[in-house]
Every structure is written in structure tokens, then in C-alpha cells.
Specification:
By secondary structure, this protein is α/β, with parallel strands linked by helices. Helices cover 33% and strands 30% of the residues. A hairpin with a 2-residue loop joins strand 5 and strand 6. Pathway: Purine metabolism; AMP biosynthesis via salvage pathway; AMP from adenine: step 1/1.
């Protein structure tokens, strides 16, 4: 399936979570077997070309695509978690949200020093979570130069922010607006 066919599998929910927002819902994409498989294959090809030695995915939807890509490539998956989810000593980074802050954590033993870790997530909007994940993975010793997404919302500037931070960014599809 090409990117246009995959794009048609993404449901748009108007006015969620607030009026004027066009929410891009991947539930319909991941529920479509051939579409999910084609999406994972597409991301895996890009990760392999980038020399992935491990895949990192942010909780929660990054786990769906990231773990599948890691399995496809036969490499490890690094879960980037919300706070308090890991039963061991973690390292973490706080980052700004539109209204407040959030935190990401990772098991530093999950990463080998200098390991080429590719970030995989379902969607890039403002880029705050992906930037925080890249910072955190680098703190753990990873080399993080690439981020892959199923969907880019370019009008929100996240991919541009990641590029300014030195990351190569690719997405399978884009949706204009927010």
C-alpha cells in the first residue's frame, strides 16, 4: 500500500479534544491488517537505511509502531515511559507542554553507549515529546540522529523543531492544519 492508501485509513475526528481540532485517529489504521503491515514495513525500511541498532518508542502509541519495527528488524526496543512506570532506577527529563510540564523516563541499562537509536512514533505535532525523548536517550548514551513518524502535522512545526535540534525527520504521511 502506498502512502495515499495508508492516509485514507486514518480517521479524522473533528473538534476533539477541543473545538477546531482535527484529531487524526490511528485506530482505524492499526485495525486494518494490511495497512498496519504496510506501515510497519515502511517505517522498518527507513530505520534500516538509517542504520538502526535499536528502536525507541514513546508511551503509548509509539510502543505500537516502535516495537513492531524492532521485531521486523530483529533489534531491541527501548520503551520511553511516563514517570513511575519502571520498577528500577531510571533517568528522566522534564519537558514543557502547552499548559504545564510532563516527564519521560528510561532504563539507562537498555542502551549501549554510542548505540544508534531511532525514535519511532505515531504522530509529530509540536515535537515536544520527541525532543524530550531524544534528549533523554542521548543522556543514556545513545546516538540519536533520526526520528520516524507515521503522521506529520507540519503546520504545528514539530518536524522543523526536531530538524533544528539536529535530527533527520521522516513521516509516511502529512495532514495540513491541526
Amino acid at each position: 500500500m502506498d502512502s495515499d492508501a495508508l492516509k485514507r485509513l486514518v480517521r479524522t475526528v473533528p473538534d476533539f479534544p477541543a473545538p477546531g481540532i482535527q484529531f487524526r485517529d490511528i485506530t482505524t489504521l492499526i485495525g486494518h491488517g494490511p495497512g498496519l503491515s504496510a506501515t510497519v514495513d515502511n517505517l522498518a525500511r527507513r530505520a534500516e537505511l538509517a542504520g538502526a541498532e535499536a528502536i525507541a518508542g514513546m508511551e503509548a502509541r509509539g510502543f505500537i509502531f516502535g516495537a513492531a519495527v524492532a521485531v521486523k528488524l530483529g533489534i531491541g526496543f527501548v520503551p520511553v515511559r511516563k514517570p513511575g512506570k519502571l520498577p528500577i532506577q531510571t533517568i528522566g527529563v522534564d519537558y514543557a507542554l502547552e499548559y504545564g510540564t510532563d516527564r519521560l523516563e528510561v532504563d539507562p541499562a537498555a542502551i549501549t553507549d554510542g548505540q544508534n537509536v531511532i525514535i519511532v512514533d505515531d504522530l509529530i505535532a509540536t515535537g515536544g515529546t520527541a525532543l524530550a525523548a531524544a534528549e533523554l536517550l542521548r543522556m543514556a548514551g545513545a546516538r540519536v540522529d533520526h526520528a520516524l513518524f507515521v503522521i506529520d502535522l507540519p503546520d504545528l512545526g514539530g518536524a522543523a523543531s526536531l530538524r533544528r535540534a539536529g535530527l533527520s525527520v521522516e513521516a509516511i504521511m502529512q495532514f495540513a492544519g491541526d
